[in-house]
Amino acid sequence: MDRTYQERAPFLPKLVTTLAEGYGRPQLKADLLAGLTVAIVALPLSMAIAIASGVAPERGLYTAIIGGFLVSALGGSRFQIGGPAGAFIVLVAATVTAHGLEGMLLATLLSGVMLAAAGLLRLGTFVKFIPYPVTVGFTAGIAALIFASQIVPLLGLHLAGAEPGPLVEKLPALWAALPSVNLATVALSLACIVALVALKLARPQWPRMLVVVAVAAVAVWATGLDVATIGSAFGGIPDGLPVPSLPPVSITKVIDVLPAAFAFALLGSIESLLSAVVADGMTGRRHRSNTELVAQGIANVASALCGGICVTGTIARTATNVRAGAYSPIAGMSHSVFLLIFILVAAPLAAYVPLAALAAVLALVCYDMVEKPAFAALLRSSWGDATVLLVTLGLTLFRDLSEAIVVGFSLGAVLFIHRMSKSVEVEKGPHDPYRLEDGADPEAVIFRVTGAMFFGAVSAVGAALDRIDDHHRILIVDLAGVTLVDSSAANMLEGLAHKAKRRGVSVYLTGARQDLRRELLTHGLRRPLVRYAESIEAGLATARRRGELGPGKFTGAVAG
To answer: Topologically, how does it sit relative to the membrane (predicted)?
Structure first.
């Protein structure tokens, strides 16, 4: 049924197709319980991510409520949970520092337009081509940057000025501020981290983040501990949603924030589709990449209009949704409704939440973000994968995330081309693969090519094929083992055929599939320049019939 809907309406949300399958009270109950579970996880995390991104905590909640609702309602995954993500902390914070809050909102809005356009242009499939070492490298780099940004609230430091964004500038500033460490804050941070780890080991089914943050808030309220809280730093959070409004727009401002918008869109598309793939692996379902990108785009536009930050699919919350027994996108929509209820009912309580507790939550999130076994395996696997991994990590830490992705992707592509070029093989028959019975010198030279004939392998394949002696009368290139022929390879074969023709050698291309033959014909490889045959034997038989070879019976075999 889902395939039929996708063929008729490729951008139809999964919500519609899921409801069309049948939806009743048991499914609604499962979705509401899953939504409540995810909301409990998302509540402290959304505020923590917003604070770490350099904006007020309520903006993280706006993002989870408005963006998360639209991602689930319009997206291409049954189980995707949208909201603010730790991967965006560095980018959002840098954008706020460079362009202010209004510039960040405009960049988020523009990124939403880019994401929706990418989905409508059906580019979702191509986003999945990001090499694995790149994703592992920039995820580890982001985790390190996020942790560095949480050192101030974890230790209660007081910096002389604004906290620098780049790591090379941040570390000296943090070192200089170490004498201002707040011992009460350090004790609270350590207690929260220990409690989070202990609950994960002893009670993994509990909502440990909410429990630890709530207990820390009660402890601060009851003891009057001298630590920074949401109330002291931000004055609390509003008890409702803002009225949608368009951030100031001008041509100059758009041009200024365009690089940030592109980075938001690029990272958002990668993070969202990766999260959807994780959900597919856990459930056996299949998401619709392009529908998901369109939904992410609309969600980011709406989030920006309501004062939120970047929206993306969140892997941890999506996995929690699946494990909690969600049935449909209504689970994700209900998670946003539960968060809205919290703002309407319990907003004043947020003022007591200590920033150290939220920083402890993010510190554990950073630890979980780093794919430690995968990182170690890539370092051991090959020099190419290790290089891509370390370059991406280094650029993420010391340069720019979008630059890291682009350079890492480029290195990965070059590595792939190099490996593919090595996989192409050209086998030539023995010295006399087809010898006449009377013992005359062979008149036919035969090559068998296997693998993908593309621009990366053209030089090696061309050098192997370009060995035609004067006594040869025909050249047979067997393409039965070829999986791909691109324009560069077709041009190389055409040049080889012209050279053979000038020397009086007939060229036969044998065993080519119909799609490969069409590609070759498009590039001029047709009669009388070359002839096609179903097999080597058929090509030899045609050459004999046309008088291009002697009448004797051929013996021997092609190598391989």
So the answer is: Multi-pass membrane protein
- The per-residue pLDDT for range 88-108, each reduced to its tens digit, is 888 899 999 999 999 999 999
pTM over 0.90: no
* Architecture category of domain 425-545 in CATH: 2-Layer Sandwich (3.30)
Contact 226, 184 (CB under 8 A): yes
Q: Which residue has the tokens 């004498």?
A: 179
**Per-residue DSSP letters for 35-104?**
HHHHHHHHHHHHHHHHHHTTS-HHHHHHIIIIIHHHHHHH-S-SS--EE--GGGHHHHHHHHHHHHHHHH
Task: Give the per-residue pLDDT at 60.
Answer: 94
Helix (H) or strand (E) holding 444: strand 444-453
Q: What is the DSSP string of 333-364?
A: HHHHHHHHHHHHHHGGGGGG-BHHHHHHHHHH
The three-point CA angle 228-231-245 to 5° equals 125
Stretch (H or E) spanning 192: helix 183-202
Instruction: Output the six-digit token pair for 204.
Output: 């993994």
Has residue 481 got a pLDDT over 70? Answer: yes
Cα–Cα distance, 338 to 353 (Å, whole number): 19
Give the H/E segment covering residue 327: none
Query: Residue ranges per domain, the chain?
Result: 2-231+248-371, 380-422, 425-545
CA 504, CA 497: separation in Å to the nearest integer? 10
| 475 residue type, one letter | L
Query: What is the sign, positive or negative, of the torsion defined by CA atoms of 74, 77, 82, 85?
Result: negative
- Residue entry with tokens 């449909």: 328
